[in-house]
Specification:
about 425 residues, mainly alpha, globular, 15 helices, single chain
């Protein structure tokens, strides 16, 4: 009991049952999703040898984040978030089952993989901003920081467990089992969501604005708040340079390092393991200035990318993935903490949809850029270029003290 009280004192979000259930359900479901992504990338290499074509499958799946997320953000502010999220999860599960059937029937074609990626991306784009907006409502303000850190931590646990498990399972029992297992993991999150209170909409007042007017109002709110504006800018850099790593890992594994399926799973899993380590370290440390934390994290990202690019074999690449994972969660958790802490709940869905839009527009750009450059040069040289770009941004922001505003409170009022 004393140990449990000590943990909840250190991580206060865990003292709240609704948060615990949704967090655990999300971890199980996302582990399945990461298995799905890794397995999808691996079977894509069976139907095409083109690096650009392999990268195009996850690219096309992320595009709906840009197209659907703005509307999902408005709906997350206007309607009950629990019900919206249940709808999105049901759709994702249906796509997962369809892909499992296709792989089991040995009916995989490149065009069908593209279709599955698009449809799954649409439902994922509906659920992502709603989930981000729901989590802070499950805890009081005093527990918000730990909830914001734990939220990406469960995703990063999934990054570690999912790809590693997928690689081992593909090697031992085949890809079809991985896809069926992914479909089953959605049950955990559905059960967790059914168990929580069906909270009223964040904004229940009358409005004469259209959906597009609400989207514009959320964008104005973000632009007028320096902490939110800089947090979204930092997210932009990470989306282009670091986010694509897991998605282009099949190219790195097959064309750069010549790995088998189990080694590929370990490679991707080390990124997630690093992210878990970074998240745990953040939970255990006392509050510190976000400016310093983000600068350290960005330095780590540049170092990890460089190690991957220069890796002569698997060992150095694993170190690079682990370092990048730690640094990635350091940057994203700190900017998300600043973002969520400064948000008015009436506009939370719309602003978090902007965060998802960044990953939906610039994340795919990063993925397809990695893949296209790998066609022209080679994948490890692309990682070296990304490391140089990250270092350049880091120097500019350090000299201008650009991240200092992350420690300042927001001033604009939601409308």
């Amino acid at each position: 009991m004393a140990e449990a009280r000590g943990l909840t004192h250190r991580v206060p979000a865990l003292a709240h049952a609704e948060f615990r259930r949704v967090w655990l359900g999300g971890a199980i479901s996302n582990s399945g999703s990461m298995m799905y992504i890794a397995a999808l990338g691996w079977i894509t290499t069976d139907v095409t040898d083109s690096a650009a074509a392999i990268a195009a499958v996850p690219f096309i799946g992320l595009v709906p984040l840009f197209l659907v997320s703005p509307f999902a953000g408005v709906w997350a502010d206007r309607f009950k978030r629990k019900r919206l999220l249940l709808l999105a999860i049901t759709g994702q599960a249906a796509v997962g089952i369809a892909v499992a059937i296709m792989v089991t029937a040995d009916a995989v074609t490149y065009s069908r993989l593209i279709i599955a990626s698009v449809v799954g991306g649409i439902f994922g784009s509906l659920g992502a901003p709603v989930f981000q907006a729901l989590i802070p409502t499950l805890v009081p303000v005093s527990a918000l920081r730990s909830a914001v850190i734990l939220n990406p931590l469960q995703f990063n646990i999934s990054r570690a467990v999912g790809p590693t498990a997928a690689g081992l399972l593909i090697d031992s029992v085949g890809a079809s089992f991985v896809f069926w297992l992914n479909a089953g993991t959605y049950i955990a999150l559905v059960v967790a969501l059914w168990s929580i209170e069906d909270r009223p909409a964040a904004f229940s007042g009358a409005t004469d604005r259209s959906v597009f007017g609400d989207i514009a109002a959320g964008a104005r709110y973000a632009v007028r708040n320096p902490p939110i504006r800089i947090a979204l800018t930092a997210g932009t850099v990470i989306a282009i340079l670091v986010f694509p790593i897991s998605y282009v890992a099949p190219i790195l594994a097959t064309q750069g390092l010549d790995l088998d399926a189990s080694e590929f799973g370990i490679l991707v899993g080390l990124f997630g393991s690093g992210a878990i380590t970074g998240g745990v370290l953040m939970l255990l440390e006392r509050d510190r200035l976000m400016e310093r934390a983000v600068l350290i994290g960005a330095s780590g990202c540049a170092t990890g990318l460089l190690l991957i690019g220069l890796a002569p074999g698997l060992t150095v690449a694993l170190i690079g993935m682990f370092v990048t994972g730690i640094a990635f969660v350091n940057v994203t958790s700190n900017v998300l903490t600043s973002l969520q802490t400064n948000l008015d709940d009436r506009v939370r869905g719309r602003v978090m949809s902007l965060w998802m839009m960044i990953y939906g527009s610039l994340g795919p750009v990063g993925i397809i850029t990695y893949g296209s450059l790998a066609e022209a040069i080679d994948i490890q040289t692309v990682f070296i270029i990304a490391a140089g770009a990250m270092a350049t941004v880091l120097v500019v922001m350090a000299l201008r003290r650009g991240f200092k505003v992350l420690d300042a409170p927001a001033e604009a009022t939601a409308r």
